[in-house]
Amino acid sequence: MRVCFVSIQWPPIITGGSGVAVVNLARELARNHKLTVYTFGLKDLAEEEIMDLDGAKIRVIRIFTSDSDRIATPFDGTKEDEIRRLLEFASKLLENIDCSWCDVIHLHGHFVVPGIARVLRELHCGRAIISTIHAFESLIELEKGRFSSPPSVFNTIVTMERDALEYSDFVTVASHSLLKRVTQIHGPQYLRRVRVIHMGIDDKLFEEPVDNDYVSRIRNTYLGSRGGLLFNLNRIDPHKGIEYIIGALGHIDTYSLSLVIAGKYEERNQSYLEMLMERKRAIEETSSHRITILRNIDERTKICLFDAADIFVMASPTEAFGLTILEALARKTPVIVTDAEGPREIFDVYDDIKEKFVEIDGGLMVNFSDPQKREKNLAAAIVYMLDNINHFKKKAEKTSKSIREKFSWRTISYEFESLYREALHT
Question: Is the model's pTM score more than 0.85?
Answer without folding.
Answer: no
